[in-house]
Recover the amino acids of this structure.
C-alpha cells in the first residue's frame, strides 16, 4: 500500500487496481496536492475579512507571575564596580615596572596588570552598553572624577615597599578569585562569560603573590619584618571587600551578583594557611576581628565586620561612619562602593587620565 499526496492512502487497493504511477517529484506535489482536510483539533477558519490569529497568541499563558528581568541600571552599576577594582589595581601594578626587585618581576607584575586591565575593559564596556548613554570603556575610565569611581579602597592605596604590595596583592587576588568563581555561574550570561575567562588569570595572581609571601615571610629577619608590617598596613581595608552593598541585594537574590560577605569564610581559611606557611601572623586587628566573627557564627548570629583599626575617616566623607542608610550593619561601610575614597585615588586618576584629557574630544 503506497501513500499518496498529502499522506493519504490510495483508494484502489484490490488485485484489479491499476498499477501505481511513477513517483511524483516533491516540487510537483507542492503544486498538485490539494489542501489538507481540517482536523478536529484545528481552530475554526477566520471569518471573511478577519486576520488570522498567530499560533503563538493562541498558547495559554503559563501559570504564576512572569519573572521580571534584572534592572539594567543596577547590573551596570555592579559591573562598573568590579571593573573599577580591576582598573585601579592595574594602574598600581603598572607603577612597579622598572622598580620591581628583578627584571623577571618587572615583566610578571606588568602582565598581572594587563590581566586586570583586560577584565576592566570587558566590564566597563558592558556597563556602558547597559547604561545606554553612549559611553564606552574609554569614557568610563578617563572621563569620571574620583567620587564617581566605586572601587574598594584597598586597591587605591599607594604601593609602599614591595612587601606592602605583595600583602595587598594576595589579599585582593584571593578575594577576586573567589568572587569570579561564583560569578562564572551568574544568571547574567555576559558577567558569567567575563568571570569564567578571568578565573585562570586571577588564579595565577594568587600563586605569584603566595610565592613571594612565603619567600619574604620565611626569609631573612628583615624581609619577615617588612612583610608583617605590610599586612598591618593593608589589613584595615580588608573588611570592605566583604561588606555587602544594600543596593546589590536584588541582583544577589536573582542570581546575577555575588554576596560579598559569603566569600569571607573561604578567604579566611586560605589566607590563614598562607600566613602559616610564611611564618607570619594575623595583625592584631585581624585576630580580634576573626574572634568576633567566630563568636557570632557559634551563637548563630550574623558575621560581624567589626574589630580592629578603622580607617574610615582617612580621606572619606564624615558621613561614612554609620550615618548613611546605605551602610550595612557592623560599622564597616563599603565606602569605596559609595564613591568615598582615600586621598590617594585623585592623584592616581590624574596620572591615569592625563593624556586622554589633555586634548579633549580626540579619538585615540
Amino acid at each position: 500500500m503506497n501513500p499518496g499526496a498529502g499522506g493519504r492512502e490510495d483508494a484502489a487497493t484490490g488485485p484489479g487496481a491499476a498499477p501505481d504511477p511513477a513517483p511524483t517529484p516533491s516540487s510537483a506535489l507542492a503544486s498538485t496536492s490539494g489542501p489538507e482536510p481540517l482536523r478536529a483539533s484545528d481552530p475554526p477558519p477566520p471569518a471573511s475579512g478577519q486576520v488570522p490569529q498567530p499560533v503563538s497568541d493562541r498558547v495559554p499563558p503559563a501559570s504564576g507571575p512572569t519573572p521580571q528581568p534584572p534592572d539594567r541600571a543596577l547590573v551596570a552599576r555592579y559591573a562598573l564596580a568590579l571593573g573599577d577594582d580591576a582598573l585601579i589595581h592595574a594602574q598600581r601594578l603598572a607603577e612597579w615596572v622598572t622598580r620591581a626587585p628583578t627584571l623577571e618581576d618587572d615583566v610578571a607584575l606588568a602582565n598581572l596588570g594587563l590581566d586586570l586591565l583586560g577584565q576592566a575593559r570587558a566590564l566597563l564596556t558592558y556597563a556602558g552598553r547597559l547604561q545606554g548613554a553612549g559611553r564606552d570603556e574609554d569614557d568610563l575610565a578617563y572621563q569620571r572624577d574620583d567620587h564617581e569611581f566605586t572601587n574598594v579602597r584597598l586597591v587605591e592605596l599607594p604601593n609602599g615597599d614591595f612587601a606592602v604590595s605583595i600583602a595587598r596583592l594576595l589579599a585582593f587576588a584571593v578575594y577576586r578569585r573567589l568572587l569570579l568563581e561564583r560569578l562564572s555561574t551568574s544568571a547574567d550570561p555576559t558577567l558569567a562569560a567575563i568571570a569564567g575567562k578571568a578565573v585562570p588569570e586571577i588564579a595565577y595572581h594568587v600563586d605569584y603573590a603566595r610565592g613571594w609571601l612565603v619567600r619574604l615571610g620565611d626569609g631573612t629577619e628583615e624581609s619577615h619584618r617588612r612583610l608583617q608590617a605590610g599586612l598591618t598596613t593593608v589589613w584595615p581595608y580588608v573588611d570592605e571587600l566583604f561588606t555587602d552593598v544594600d543596593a546589590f541585594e536584588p541582583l544577589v537574590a536573582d542570581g546575577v551578583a555575588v554576596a560579598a560577605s559569603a566569600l569571607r569564610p573561604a578567604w579566611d581559611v586560605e589566607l590563614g594557611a598562607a600566613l602559616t606557611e610564611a611564618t607570619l601572623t594575623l595583625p592584631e586587628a585581624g585576630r580580634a576581628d576573626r574572634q568576633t566573627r567566630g563568636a557570632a557564627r557559634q551563637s548563630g548570629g550574623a558575621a560581624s565586620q567589626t574589630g580592629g583599626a578603622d580607617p574610615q575617616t582617612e580621606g572619606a566623607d564624615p558621613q561614612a561612619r554609620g550615618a548613611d542608610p546605605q551602610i550595612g550593619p557592623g560599622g564597616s561601610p563599603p565606602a569605596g562602593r559609595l564613591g568615598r575614597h582615600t586621598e590617594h585615588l585623585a592623584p592616581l586618576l590624574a596620572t591615569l587620565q592625563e593624556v586622554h584629557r589633555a586634548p579633549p574630544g580626540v579619538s585615540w
Confidence is low (pLDDT under 50) at residues 2-18, 21-34, 51-64, 299-331. The first helix runs from residue 26 to 32.
